[in-house]
Amino acid sequence: MKPTIEKPAIATGREIADTRELIITRIIDAPRDRVFKTWTQRFSEWWGPHGMTTPFYEMDLRPGGIFRTVMRAPDGSEYPTKGVFLEVVENERIVFTDAFDPGWLPSPDPFFTAITTLEDLDGKTKYTARALHWTVENRRKHEQMGFHQGWGESLDRLIALVTKV
Question: Could you tell me if residue 12 is inside a domain?
Fold first, then answer.
């Protein structure tokens, strides 16, 4: 009699995303090249929720290039982030993660990877920002920190910049 070996269930990408992903999507009345240029070149003007400023940022827009920011709250509290870009496709896609430090050194406490996509919709842009978390707990924590409101307000600020005439 041949023994039966049961294979462990493997989660699909969609099942993982359903439990560890947060998403925000908007249609922006501006071409995606303008959205990309503003995202990458006027970052401190829009990054962060209303009332926050970004007095410092550093971006080397290439795989392995540094991504660092400091957001400042009205009370003076500062919130630094750092990581690297994994992918940058002009006018289409920006991917960064805190799982690595420059030089591909593993981060001691990875939290998420951000994937921003820009899709052309007849001169408008479908903007999608996805935050993929390493754990369900990190996703919950990010959601409780105000992901939808904070990232939504950042996106409001970006939209205001790209739609100014």
Answer: no
